[in-house]
Write a structure and sequence with these properties.
By secondary structure, this protein is an alpha/beta fold. The protein has a domain at 1-140: Rossmann fold, CATH 3.40.50.720. It has 10 helices and 12 strands. It has helices at 10-17, 29-32, 41-51, 71-91, 103-106, 113-130, 154-164, 182-193, 211-221, 259-271; strands at 2-5, 24-26, 57-60, 95-101, 135-140, 142-144, 168-170, 176-177, 179-181, 199-202, 209-210, 228-230. The strands form 4 sheets. A 6-stranded parallel β-sheet has the order 2-1-3-4-5-10, with helices on both faces. Helix 1 crosses helix 8 and helix 3 packs across helix 4 (71-91). It is globular, with a radius of gyration of 19 Å.
Amino acid sequence: MNLILGCRGRLGAAIAASFEPGQMIALDRLDYSEWWRSDSEDAIARFLEKRAKDGGNVYIAAGLIDPGAARDDHQRINFFLARNVASAAAMAGLRTVTFGTVMEKVAKDKANSYYESKIMLGDWAAEAAVRGVPILHVRLHTLYGGAAPDRFMFLGQVFQALSRGESFNMTSGEQLREYHHIDDEVLAVRILAESNLAGTVDLSHGAPVRLRDLAKFIFEAFGASVLLSIGTLTAPSNDNYSTVFERLPLLKTVPFRDTLPSVTGYLRSCLH
């Protein structure tokens, strides 16, 4: 039996839906709202033991990604909750799969409390795996599909400009990004979760695009190039301009979609 925290979000909902009936228990947010507290591990372990007696994976898709949220909130949800659940799951004989971001490796920006919380979790997972804790921390790229894009993400801002017919100002757009359709991502996550990997791993397809190329393709496809203004904003110094992540051999069979046409089609579906 498998369990999942965070089944209301894009990733969690898609992971839960990928299992056959009776193979996955989706926990209610009220079940784990206090599990970030330091004295909660024993209670979590008892809770998990009652619901997953035959072992399995605990997927922690619950998370706070809004960069404008408070630092304490990021750490409570993204680090302390995940750490406590992983520790308790090990006590209950379960393996834990947590999720982070590849920006943990390329943007060591402690001023960004979201990145900071995920760096903390990734570092802890790597150390815990060495100690024998059954945990896999999967660092993700940008997801799309399954729902409208988040307003504070690049695609969300593009979506807003297109839907309102407003100008879209951006940096020079030299930043590299991988975009992964949620259905492809879930297939890859299931492969990784069912492997014997432990510690931290990057879930990459190895075909990044520059943000300027993505923006130009999208606005041209919508006949809205006049709205796009590249180079009007200052580019952040702490971003990924050169790192290309490699696809794991384990994921060679995953049919990741071609980014430019697929993302454009996704935005078109969101607008209609």
